[in-house]
Design goal:
By secondary structure, the protein is an alpha+beta fold. 30% of the residues lie in helices and 22% in strands. The protein has a 5-stranded antiparallel sheet with strand order 1-2-3-4-5. The protein is globular, with a radius of gyration of 21 Å. The relative contact order is 0.09.
């Protein structure tokens, strides 16, 4: 029995996050309404970052861990890491190009970003290979299409995500920084082909922005979601941009996120920014 099977057998809701699963604290004395415990996906070692409760999942539930399985998973993990470092991740053998228009995105845009479906490994998801600046696939970003959880699945867990696309095509020396992959794809689909996905506001740092500078980018238009938390994060991102001599500009459309803009709205935004 592995960690995922144990959590399922004990009916413990979990959410993959990096190399861990996030669960509500297993400490019976901790009313953890906002899940704050992380469980290592391979070893089952857990730690609650709220109350400090820690231990091993198998010991906690009185179950025997399969040490053969643990050893096998650790070896497989090292092999994947070494392969990814050298030549990048291979596409799954059962991958088939996605040919639909889910969320109103044109099929040619899905082809542009190499979207595929894989009914063996990513059931019910549309998957995007994430390439770094060298063109190497460093991760797969799989978005569930019918409301399943987690909404986004990153494989391998804990992958270091570059800005995406890593190779950019600035418009008048400018790119548009957005939070999510569908924010970026929606803008590309409707004519703003200089949009770049950050994969969350915490994924931006000076090294990644410096790669944009090396590609001739002089300005970053920060276009995050309209909620208060995203706007606060946008202010932090603007500061990081300034640290690498990127001129910044903000876009804020009330009650509207980049991924929800219509073609007409995107064209108006393009005219406003670059006319």
């Amino acid at each position: 029995m592995n960690v995922e099977e144990l959590l399922q057998s004990k009916q413990v809701p979990f959410l993959p996050k990096g190399k861990d699963y996030v669960v509500s604290c297993l400490n019976p004395e901790h009313d953890d309404s906002n899940p704050s415990m992380r469980v290592d996906q391979i070893t089952g070692i857990f730690h609650c970052f709220s109350c400090g409760y820690k231990g091993n999942l198998f010991v906690h539930f009185g179950e025997k861990a399969s040490f053969l399985h643990l050893r096998r998973e650790l070896i497989k993990k090292k092999i994947r890491e070494k392969r990814a470092e050298s030549v990048g991740l291979p596409f799954p053998p059962s991958a088939l190009p996605y040919v639909g228009n889910w969320r109103g995105i044109k099929p040619e845009t899905y082809r542009k970003f190499e979207a595929f479906q894989d009914h063996d490994n990513f059931i019910g998801r549309v998957v995007f290979p994430i390439r770094d600046i060298s063109g190497k696939v460093v991760a797969f970003n799989a978005r569930h299409m019918t409301g399943g959880t987690p909404k986004y699945l990153i494989n391998p867990p804990g992958a270091r995500m570059p800005l995406y696309p890593a190779k950019v095509k600035p418009i008048q020396g400018s790119v548009i920084l957005v939070e999510g992959i569908y924010d970026m794809i929606n803008l590309h689909d409707k004519g703003l082909t200089n949009a770049v996905c950050c994969f969350g506001t915490r994924n931006i740092n000076e090294d990644k922005l410096s790669i944009l500078r090396l590609q001739g980018v002089e300005q970053a238009v920060v276009f995050f979601d309209a909620d208060q938390a995203a706007q606060k994060a946008a202010a932090n991102v603007k500061q990081i941009c300034e640290n690498v001599d990127l001129v910044t500009r903000s876009v804020n459309i009330p009650d509207m996120d980049p991924g929800g803009l219509s073609e007409n709205q995107v064209q108006k935004l393009k005219q406003k920014l670059y006319s």
